[in-house]
DNA sequence: ACATTTCCATACCGATTAGTATGGCGCAAA
DNA sequence: TTTGCGCCATACTAATCGGTATGGAAATGT
């Protein structure tokens, strides 16, 4: 009941690493086992299939470990523009695990798996909704504080900001880290265009 | 010198279909052969490896067939806002081949392959640069015509627009086609915020 | 007519894949 | 002490992978 949980986590962590760098479909179980001390018997004791492990990865690792970092990246100054800007900046530039080269695990998985597995799509959508919700609250707060016109649809803006992040993660893979800076510049322009 | 070119194209077209829907790494040569009348001997006569076929796919199919559609999607009215809006709208909504579910082949390949194969990254970057260039010209034209302040950096805006497209393609996979409309609404707001 | 090259078909290879079958170790309850 | 269960190790399978070897039909040049 204790040691077992450790091996389960070891499997998920290594899987996360490999899938983050090589993609879900390109990461084999044997490769995971080869780079850990876990054997195949242990793997199939904890997960009844490869797909179930993928689902556990989304809900356990990505949701429970990565998501808090996202939430923490949101400052709470009075200026909502500053808060949203810093949020994206923290995620793009300062994140301790994510790199420009390999992008964002969530974005990657959406791109690769959303059309192929409905379970995956729904699980990833759930992650997305939580982020969206937090951004929405920040928008609404700004509107209540008179920093932003109430005409704006908070949901639309929230989704738009997330869309920008997803796009930047994709473009960064081609253009390199330098692009993150020019992107953030334009993002700042956008935020200040919101009246 | 004639029939041979046909089989080459048949290979590339079917490869494009499968890779577009399932991803590059998940598409096997055997699967391509199974769904065409092409044999393995023919395949390896035209391409010395799987990777070379992938490169040919980027330069031949995507560049020579998809790219003209992109270029055609750009209207040439006087209003640059209208032109850019319609460009994204055409690509997202009206494109005859691309679907919301499977996204954009270029975006997909960038996400999957840019970190893994430097050749791929460069070839995809080249595609991107052409699109960027066309958008830049539209921005510059608008600036010369006094529709837009010369303070704006045309390159940054062009990349920003492409970033938005990439993000929308990604988000669409999770949220479905309906999101394209709300996205386009926010994109329109952005365009009109450019003074 | 013959020779040569282009283009493709078939059979095969070793490596790798997801998944299974089975056995055993350690520990707690009886 | 024995029984049972949680946890894992080893060995295996059938299928599939990218790639090769080889032979031959069809077109082409001489």
TrEMBL record, chains A, B:
Q: Where are the transmembrane segments?
A: none
Q: Where is the HTH tetR-type domain?
A: 5-65
Q: Which residues bind DNA?
A: 28-47
GO MF, one annotated term: DNA binding
What PROSITE patterns does this protein map onto? HTH_TETR_2
Which is a Pfam family this sequence falls into? TetR_N
UniProt xrefs under Gene3D superfamilies? Tetracycline Repressor, domain 2
Keywords annotated in UniProt: DNA-binding, Transcription, Transcription regulation
Which PANTHER family does the record cross-reference, listed alphabetically? HTH-TYPE TRANSCRIPTIONAL REPRESSOR NEMR (PTHR47506:SF6), TRANSCRIPTIONAL REGULATORY PROTEIN (PTHR47506)
Designated name of the protein = AcrR family transcriptional regulator
At the highest ranks, the source species' classification is: Bacteria, Pseudomonadati, Bacteroidota, Sphingobacteriia, Sphingobacteriales
């Amino acid at each position: 009941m204790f040691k077992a949980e450790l091996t389960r986590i070891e499997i998920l962590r290594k899987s996360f690493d490999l899938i983050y760098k090589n993609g879900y479909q390109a990461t084999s179980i044997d490769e995971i086992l080869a780079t850990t001390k876990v054997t195949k018997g242990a793997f199939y004791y904890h997960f009844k299939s490869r797909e179930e492990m993928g689902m556990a990865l989304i809900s356990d690792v990505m949701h429970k470990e990565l998501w808090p970092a996202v939430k923490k990246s949101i400052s709470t100054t009075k200026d909502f523009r500053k808060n949203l800007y810093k949020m994206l900046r923290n995620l793009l530039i300062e994140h301790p695990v994510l790199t420009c080269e390999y992008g964002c695990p969530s974005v990657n998985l959406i791109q690769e798996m959303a059309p192929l597995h409905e379970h995956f799509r729904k699980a990833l959508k759930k992650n997305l909704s939580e982020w969206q919700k937090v951004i929405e609250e920040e928008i609404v707060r700004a509107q209540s504080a008179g920093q932003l016109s109430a005409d704006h649809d908070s949901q639309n803006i929230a989704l738009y900001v997330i869309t920008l992040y997803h796009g930047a993660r994709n473009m960064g893979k081609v253009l390199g880290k330098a692009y993150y800076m020019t992107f953030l510049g334009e993002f700042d322009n956008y935020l200040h265009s919101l009246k």
